[in-house]
Amino acid sequence: MRFRLHNIRLGLDEESSLLPQKICRKLRISPEELLNCQVLKKAVDARKKDNIHFVYSVEIELPEKTGRRIAGKHGLTPVTEQPNAPLVPGNIPLGYRPVIVGTGPAGLFAALLLAEYGYRPLVLERGYDVETRTAKVLDFWENRALDPECNVQFGEGGAGTFSDGKLTTRINDPRVTRVFETFVAAGAPEEILYLSKPHIGTDKLRAVVKNIRNRIIELGGQVRFQAKLTNIFHQHGAVTEVEVNGKERIPARAVVLAIGHSARDTYRMLVEQGFYLEQKAFAMGVRIEHPQQLINEAQYGKYANHPSLGAADYQLVYKNKELDRAAYTFCMCPGGQVVAAASEKDTVVTNGMSYFARNSGIANSAVAVSVLPDDFGAKGPLAGVQFQRKWEMLAFQVGGKNYNAPVQRVEDFLAGRASDNVDLDLASYRPGITPADLHGCLPEFVSEMLEMAIEDFDKKIRNFGYSDAVLTGVETRTSAPVRIVRDEEYNAVGIAGVYPAGEGAGYAGGIISAAVDGLRVAEAIIKKYRKGEETD
Ligand code: FAD
């Protein structure tokens, strides 16, 4: 009989090999009665700073007799989950390969599922393969040479390739497990299957992405880089063809639009082609950098440098009821670095990443403020894009018009005066930084909320408002400022066969939820269409 058991504690110095012993003691059974034990979750409980420990949830197998004797006691819950119903392909002939646009998590996972079911997808990616892309991104970070077609937002693996590879999600969907298992099969560390805050790190993620691409190809899919979707043709409410790089036309009956939140030219093309897009709230703000040791001490107290804990993180929210706004920390990267994430010339955009080891010694996080369609100050579906661009261009100017990012000490930001220097050991943004006043490239309501939020967060995390902490602006690409509206069958409203998916479509936020959305859309295609020899 199989059961789940929660809340098993292990000290920071105790090996996980002690788990079976702890379980037997808790259940008052002999070691022989514990037939099997699998860790489902491992979390750090740091609520009491003088007693930080690990908490485990496990699935165990017990002999029938033991199971019956202790079922319902000691917090044991029987495992009753049924296996997922198999996916039954539909009957409508697809005629052509399904086309997947974008190789971020949404596109990759949609393509992989379709490939596994024999649909031999054609994957189009505007940027380069991950190795060439890495060289291009480094060229920007070192030599200020931005390629608008291949950068931190565009290219194989999508926006998360140069990230912390945090795999936390708030969605509760059975497909999440499939995503984790796929990552592990593609080379991610196995611990992501059970850690409560799993992460891969940019170094391992790059290899994982490449392995998923190769698997798609092995299964009969085709992956084309430097292949930008430039048009979609439709007739009588259904897609007929896609255009690549402004010249090649490919017939299509199912097209997954997994374009991410930064494909502004593609958004414009969709509007021109009659797709229904609407404004959507997002968030903007700045990156904040602290010494990692400061965060470790605030979160772990006397255990700050305990080898089994690693670099500490945080997640904070400040709500101002009067202003009806929220500010929150977002995409926190322990032991990471702030990265230049622009995708358009003459703009500055920040984001954060880290390597698997998270050992840079610097903690960074976005501190972002909610931005609502009313703040965009214009009508039309792409008003949010215009709004983002305006502040990104201002940041470029305040930074010195050479891709340096404007930076400011927290103390100066709160005092409303420009910084004339910052702690260079803390400011990790490349290619360079310019001490300045960030108020010059942030909307007033964002600056005001950031000031209040930093003061509030200082009460929640000791020294969060550390005077020499570095703020780098501007962080605008937190999520899409627009939604490509779709119907209950995941088709773009009014245009059958086009399936908007992932973050750019406005239906996901983060690596895991984007991947899950890609799977959802691929399932909808499989359930509707029949694959066939003709899908070439
Ligand atoms: P994307 O990943 O944006 O992929 C879209 C793809 O489509 C891109 O590869 C792009 O080149 C391609 N494309 C766009 N237009 C076209 C076109 N016309 N033709 C062909 N191809 C096109 N999330 C987390 O959960 N954890 C993190 O730690 C994390 N860190 C991040 C760090 C950074 C620096 C960034 C930028 C993002 C981070 N995110 C993180 C967010 C996460 O990356 C996104 O939520 C996720 O990648 C969205 O997936 P997606 O597939 O919807 O879109």
TrEMBL record:
Keywords: Monooxygenase, Oxidoreductase. This is Monooxygenase FAD-binding protein. One of its GO terms (molecular function) is FAD binding. Residues 99-127 form the FAD-binding domain. Residues 281-478 form the FAD-dependent protein C-terminal domain. The keyword Signal does not apply. It comes from the Bacteria. InterPro entries: FAD-bd, FAD-binding_protein, FAD-depend_C, FAD/NAD-bd_sf.
